Amino acid sequence: MSLLEDRYRRVLRLLPASYRAEREEEMVCAFMEGSAGLTDADDPRPRWPEIASVAALSLRVRLGGAGAAPRFLAWGRAVRLAAVLGLLFHATMSCAWFLEAVRGSLSTGRPAVPGEVWSEQWLSGTAQILGYLLWIAVFGTLVRGHPRTAKILALLALVSFYGPLAQDGPGTGDAVVYGLLFAVPVLALVAGFHRDAPPPRRSRWTAALPVLAGVPLHVLLSALGSLGMSRTVDWHLWSWLWPWLSSSGTACLAFLVASAICLGRRPRAPGGRDPALPLALAVLSVPVILARVAFLTVDAVDPATRVMAAVNIGQLVAVLLCGLVLTRVAARALPAPPMPPALPAQPRVPDVPPSSPSG
Question: Which residue windows are transmembrane per the record (predicted)?
């Protein structure tokens, strides 16, 4: 075996063993034909595009679509469901934030003077509003069966979020960690909806879910915000309520409700052994935990802040426990890994007794 062939076989170890057993020799031959003329004296190595293509193929196989092995099919469905659920949350929150931005601009009610039209504050506000609309469009195009368009819009939405952070310099670590709430569903979208995966095709009512849920959410958050500004509100009650009203707190609440529904109806559901939903929620628990850690305070000085810190810790513990339970439930329901095809049995040569010496 030449040095280059050995290195190609090492790269192919990225693929599952069951896939390598069927295609490894064919792929090695194809790679070697494309590298004709190289000898061991040239210290040949696989090219980076070849390594990237093998890594992308490994991801597509492990997150399989229709016709894939049951375990890979379950992982693919889970990652795609995590993308849909995560993007649904962001689209719903973006709808509420968009309505709040429109309400704020209408309440101001004064036209911008010529010097303020292209001001930094105006441009930042406009980019933020466009980011809200992008998240809504990402979910709508995805559930309507256009994952490629959804990927482009999602990357633009991420740029609208992380772009200002890159200009702020140091001190943005908490915001970057919080941004994982946005980044993880986008990564699931890019990885799960590959060319071998079946595109989602849902009704228009599903695409309208962010608006149907975002409008009442905006009304509720606005009412609670007005209540918090009132002098008659009890600070004890508000200290318990406030940690749930931020975007990460709302994500924590949505995750806990979804987990309770998943675990509560799982024993009674006909397809109760399907690991896709608990596995998807277990994946989403990671950014939710990190987002709440980013806002954790341990130096509270007044009673109200100490209560909010205690609620935050309780949220972290609850999400962590739910994530562990969901992971265990999904692991028990996952099909076994596919086994490589067995080698054909070699024909057995019958034993021939030794001939006895002639007398």
Answer: 81-102, 122-143, 150-169, 175-193, 205-229, 241-264, 276-295, 307-326
- Neighbour-count burial of 322, counting CB atoms closer than 10 A to its CB (0-12 exposed, 13-18 middle, 19+ buried): buried
**C-beta of residue 187 within 8 angstroms of C-beta of residue 193:** no
Residue among 75, 97, 86 at smallest CA distance from 139 = 86
Query: Which range, of 89-93, 121-125, 274-278, 284-288, averages the lowest pLDDT?
Result: 121-125
Which pLDDT belongs to residue 114?
46
Question: pLDDT tens digits for 219-235?
Answer: 888 887 776 666 666 66
State the Cα–Cα distance between residues 110 and 130, nearest whole angstrom: 21
Q: Which two tokens stand for residue 109?
A: 């009610």
The domain limits of the chain are 1-32+47-56, 70-107+116-333
pLDDT digits (tens, 9 = 90+) for 249-261: 899 999 999 999 9
* Residue (of 85, 257, 248) closest to 180 by Cα position: 248
pLDDT at 111: 46
pLDDT digits (tens, 9 = 90+) for 271-290: 557 889 999 999 999 999 98
Around 28, how many Cα atoms within 13 Å sit in the side-chain half-sphere? 20
Following DSSP, what letter does each residue of 44-104 receive, concatenated? ----HHHHHHHHHHHHHHHT--TTS-HHHHHHHHHHHHHHHHHHHHHHHHHHHHHHHHHHH
Measured distance CA(141)–CA(152) in Å, rounded:
11
- State in Å, rounded, how far the first CA of the chain is from the last one: 54
Range 206-222 average pLDDT:
89
CA neighbours closer than 13 Å in the CB half-sphere of residue 261: 8
Q: Among the residues of the chain, which ranges form H helices? A: 3-11, 17-34, 48-62, 70-108, 120-143, 147-168, 173-178, 180-192, 204-207, 209-229, 235-241, 247-265, 276-294, 303-333
pTM for the model: 0.84
